[in-house]
Amino acid sequence: MNPDMQEFFDRVFGDLPRQAPGSRASTLRGYNAIPAMPGSTTALDVGCGTGGQTRTLAKMHDGPVVAIDIIQPFLRRLHALAAKDDLAIHPVCMSMDRMGFVDGSFDLVWSEGAFYSAGFDESASICHGLLKPGGYLAATELVWLTDDRPEAAVRFWETEYPAMRSREAVADRLQQLGFALIDSFVLPDKDWWDEFYAPLSSRLDGLREVFAEDRDAIAFLDSTVGELDVRRQYPESYGYVFYILRGE
Ligand code: SAH
After folding, report:
1. pTM of the predicted model, to two decimals?
2. Domain 3-247 has CATH 3.40.50.150
3. Residue among 44, 48, 81 whose CB has most ligand 1 atoms within 8 A, to mutate
């Protein structure tokens, strides 16, 4: 991603607690669903953003956490936050579809609100290869939660995320990719708002003024307004599901 775009995304999202729906409670719930973790292992957090979940993970996990993202300013923020709390987090700038790790390197791979960007199935499959046999993957994905889908929500997500499937279809696909499903749960609606949409929404008007002359930026901000509106209206029909999986 070019540096101007990185700076733009940092300006919009960088100082929010998170860059996707999620919360400390949900990260902990996902971590606690993992039956047993061998002592002192290296974990990988894919698409870490500024590391809301990475820091929670690092506090729980007995071993270092490598955290990757493609936006350098996010990684700089994570680096500073991790240093402040003396956490064993190693931020690295790399793309999830071109990670240079040796196969079988990790006992645990984590990813919240990020796999979709390089394709959820492709990313899950790559991470399957990075796991040691019997290692765990915990990842969230945006899914339809009901068969009865409101037209306005369908119209919005058909444009923004055409690959969106049902909760069950994602679980089936993960099993085809060689994972056993240990647990799954829907992130509560407050995970969308408290640390993400609410602080984001309160800055959108200001950003619109700053970027008034930049057509791409305005288009992005318009789409974000639409995303928030759809969520306000139809929180029951779609959501983020946390999938906790074991590689087989
Ligand atoms: N996990 C964080 C951030 C989620 S937002 C949270 O839940 O708060 C999605 C993140 O994925 C962003 O930080 C974005 O920069 C990153 N991302 C997008 N495409 C990527 C890619 N190809 N490789 C690595 N990271 C990517």
Report:
1. 0.97
2. yes
3. 48
